[in-house]
Write a structure and sequence with these properties.
264 residues, Aspartate Aminotransferase, domain 2, alpha/beta, two-stranded antiparallel sheet, 39% helix, 7-stranded mixed β-sheet
């Protein structure tokens, strides 16, 4: 009996092989491996696709979450509310930064975080909410953003499973998942709908000041070369992965439609 893979990366590659091979060959020829033109091009094209002001590429989706929390200057002991139904990375980075993860339940029909459970979990120590969009379905971002405004909290969207999905708000307008909260994070792990051929990730925001801080954190806390104003990390999307992602971005809606549902 023939096994049918859930994600056929080999078959997908065969359909875009000439473009991918040419893009990789160009980078190998010009040796622009780190922060080369391919990274800038992908960043700009993803900003346009998502309708967001700033995309900050990084090394992986876990780093994206960690950098987001570092840029918000959260302190040890601060509480971050997130869902109990998610991959470990969501809670892992909270604990890694010595923040306190507060796990709440999900809604039975979508498996996305329950806004009512969020509200019950808010305390004076709560500083942020991390909703996780699952299976291409967005969490109830209207309710979550209302809670965040009411309690003066940050919202960091974990968008690793919903790149390209649309959220229709109470105002009738749609926005891409990951662009509604203060910061959005995604993963480009190979099995994702928009996946590279290694590790990769990105952070989104419409806030100019936050974007500046995010860019500083991903680059060793450096504003001017060799002058380090903050404690940061080394988290960069390399040029080869960016070039592959840029090719696949043009087909993201097609990939999502093939999977079915609301883009998924």
């Amino acid at each position: 009996m023939k096994q049918i893979p859930m994600v056929d990366l080999v078959g997908q590659y065969q359909k875009i092989k000439p473009e991918v091979d040419a893009a990789i060959g160009e980078i190998l020829t010009n040796a622009s491996f780190i922060n080369g033109p391919a990274v800038k091009q992908f960043q700009q094209n993803l900003e346009q696709y998502l309708g967001v002001k700033h995309v900050i590429p990084c090394a992986n989706g876990t780093d994206a979450l960690q950098v987001a929390m570092m840029a918000l200057n959260l302190k040890p002991g601060d509480e971050v509310i997130t869902t109990s139904f998610t991959f470990i990375a969501t809670a892992e980075v909270i604990a890694l930064l010595q923040l306190t993860p507060v796990l709440v339940d999900v809604l039975p029909d979508t498996f996305n975080i329950d806004p009512a459970a969020i509200e019950r979990a808010i305390t004076p120590k709560t500083k942020a909410i991390v909703p996780v969009h699952l299976f291409g379905q967005t969490a109830d971002m209207d309710a979550i953003m209302d809670l965040a405004e009411k309690h003066n909290l940050y919202v960091i969207e974990d968008n690793a499973q919903a790149i390209g999905a649309d959220h229709y708000g109470k105002d009738g307008h749609s926005r891409k998942a990951g662009t509604i909260g203060h910061i959005g994070c995604t993963s480009f792990f190979p099995s994702k709908n928009l996946g590279c051929y290694g590790d990769g990730g990105a952070i989104f925001t419409n806030d100019d000041e936050l974007a500046t801080q995010l860019r500083v954190v991903v680059n060793h806390g450096m504003v001017v070369r060799y002058y380090h104003d903050y404690v940061g990390v080394n988290s960069r999307l390399d040029s080869i992965q960016a070039a592959i992602l840029d090719i696949k971005l043009k087909r993201l809606d097609e990939y999502n439609k093939a999977i079915g549902g609301n883009g998924w």
